[in-house]
Amino acid sequence: MTRFLKSVRRYKVYLVLAAIFLFAGFVRFYNISEVPVSLYWDEVSQVYSAYSILETGKDEYGNSFPLLFRAFEDYKTPANIYLTAISVKLFGLNEFSARFSSAFLGTLSIFFVFLFIEHDIETSDEMIRLARRAPKRTNFFPRVLSIPGIYRFSKTSRIIGRLY
Q: What Rg value do the Cα atoms of the chain yield, rounded?
């Protein structure tokens, strides 16, 4: 039993991360096709572009696999539209497939935020203290996700720092 407790202490940070990840996935995916009641016009435009790419390989304006999608005189980046095309292929043309890619990427972003703060945290107890203080620190995410914050992370991270 003590061997099990030692291994739990060693991996406490990863267990907390997994619990947060599972909770966030549940919150994002629970009742995703019913709440909100109907699709917003941006979601409909995105699904229409994704379905058009899936069926014809062209967007609604006849451009083959564009890098920017024109919709309502606005230009949208292609990553979410191409991911939506994959979910439309897997799940069919419905509300769930329209919202799946956004919910999936939102859940996956938790892992990337963990990577942003992971290099500053030495112990799992410090991670728990940071999680308790997070609601009080409203300026944390804008500071971390700003251009200087990303640059600082890329220079000091153990993972990305090796690329420089």
A: 20
- Report CA-CA distances (Å) from 139 to 119, 133, 146: 19, 12, 11
Summarised one tens digit per residue, pLDDT across range 52-94 is 999 999 988 888 988 888 887 788 888 889 999 999 999 999 9
Strands (E), 2-143: 69-71, 74-76
Cβ 161 vs Cβ 154: under 8 Å: yes
Q: Is the alpha carbon torsion for 159, 160, 163, 164 positive or negative?
A: negative
pTM of the predicted model as reported, rounded to 2 decimal places = 0.65
Asked if residue 34 lies in contact with residue 94, where contact means CB atoms within 8 angstroms, the answer is: no
SS3 label, residue 6: helix
How many Å apart are CA 164 and CA 161, to the nearest integer?
6
DSSP 134: G
CB atoms within 10 A of CB 10: 11
Nearest to 94 by CA among 146, 152, 52, 51: 51
